[in-house]
Write a sequence for this structure.
């Protein structure tokens, strides 16, 4: 069910910081609020949007989605995009429309939002071990046959099996491999085989679909050749484990992994079935800094995600303060970068503020002026906002609810 709000309502809610609540109130049902874009009754010029605001350039966004789909089709594999990046059913549904075989979620709470929005093919990529998490996964699987989750421990497999048996469902699972992150996953080789044997022989309410081999520690290695060497080596070890399991009579349909940083590397490795790419629709400073196959800047995908800020104070001549700090950008080693202004350098100025160093700017930046900054890290930045302000031809035309915001459980 499509929703819409008036220009006046938008400005009132944005100024009051209640945009998310206003959208929820406009919906007639929770599922509609979660799933649907909200159309503005008349487009709003970007320069009139109250700040800080999360902007999504629709043209660049759509281009990125289609580039990824075209790429994996050429290599004969599939894409299973990671919704932990965007946390938005509107975006997840668009990815599925373009041919994704499903979406990934990092947490059970994210998956529940997507399932409530009518999405069925959901893979939960992080292990869960307790009853309060296992039961909701099994409950989702009862309503959505495409629910799938990783397991890296025989004891946990038994817990899931008991819950699935009690609910009368068969739950799809992937064995999560430790690719070297030492974060989650079971050791490659014999330990993985033993877990596969345990699942297939003793867990009659679990269906072992394959393996997950996600090497997150490789995604931001600077230099495409170095990244390629490491990723081929790591995925090769996963393929050896897959071959070992299959040699012992256990067929595996899926080997899922990869990410935006290795999308054009892992897609060409025979045996990989789908890519768990996350950041490619948006891009950010961190990814652009690692380079791609064509150069030192990773620009195969265009930046589409920005934060709009306003200059609000000028206490000294060489600096100007904007209204976006730690509460508006993910605060890590990288810093946001101005898009349309050369000679302006962002510095953290606290929770609410950024301090801009003025270095012979290409265009003036004065009090009251607004500017776009490319986010330093898209995933945690998105999690700070209620909605995407979708921009077309310099105007905000729609709001897309970030419905899984804060779903860290």
């Amino acid at each position: 069910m499509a929703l819409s709000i008036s220009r006046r309502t938008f400005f009132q809610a944005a100024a009051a910081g209640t945009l998310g609540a206003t959208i929820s109130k406009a919906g007639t049902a929770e599922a509609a609020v979660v799933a649907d874009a909200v159309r503005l009754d008349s487009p709003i010029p970007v320069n009139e949007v109250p700040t800080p605001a999360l902007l999504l350039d629709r043209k660049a966004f759509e281009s990125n989605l289609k580039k990824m789909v075209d790429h994996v089709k050429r290599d004969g594999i599939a894409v299973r995009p990671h919704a932990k990046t965007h946390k938005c059913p509107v975006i997840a549904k668009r990815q599925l429309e373009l041919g994704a075989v499903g979406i990934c979620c990092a947490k059970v709470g994210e998956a529940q939002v997507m399932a409530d929005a009518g999405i069925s093919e959901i893979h939960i990529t992080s292990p869960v071990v307790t009853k309060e998490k296992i039961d909701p996964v099994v409950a989702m699987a009862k309503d959505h046959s495409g629910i799938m989750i990783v397991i890296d421990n025989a004891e946990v497999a038994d817990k899931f099996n008991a819950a699935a048996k009690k609910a009368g469902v068969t739950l799809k699972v992937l064995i999560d491999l430790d690719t070297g992150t030492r974060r989650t996953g079971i050791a490659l080789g014999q330990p993985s085989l033993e877990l596969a044997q345990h699942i297939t022989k003793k867990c009659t309410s679990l269906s072992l679909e394959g393996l997950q081999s996600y090497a997150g520690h490789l995604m931001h290695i600077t230099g495409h050749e170095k990244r390629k060497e490491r990723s081929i080596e790591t995925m090769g070890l996963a393929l050896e484990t897959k071959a070992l399991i299959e040699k012992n009579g256990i067929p595996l349909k899926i080997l899922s992994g990869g990410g935006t940083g290795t999308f054009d590397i892992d897609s060409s490795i025979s045996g990989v079935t789908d890519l768990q790419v996350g950041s490619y629709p948006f891009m950010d400073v961190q990814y652009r800094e690692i380079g791609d196959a064509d150069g030192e800047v990773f620009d195969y995908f265009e930046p589409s995600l920005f934060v709009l800020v306003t200059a609000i104070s000028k206490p000294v001549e060489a600096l100007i303060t904007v209204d976006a700090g730690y509460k508006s950008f993910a605060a890590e080693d990288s810093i946001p970068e101005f898009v349309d202004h050369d000679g302006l350098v962002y510095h953290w100025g606290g929770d609410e503020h950024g301090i801009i160093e003025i270095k012979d700017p290409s265009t003036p930046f004065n009090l009251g002026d607004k500017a776009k900054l490319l986010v330093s890290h898209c995933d945690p930045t998105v999690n700070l906002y209620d909605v995407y302000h979708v921009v077309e031809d310099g105007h905000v035309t729609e709001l897309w609810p970030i419905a899984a915001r804060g779903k860290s459980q």
In short: The radius of gyration is 22 Å.
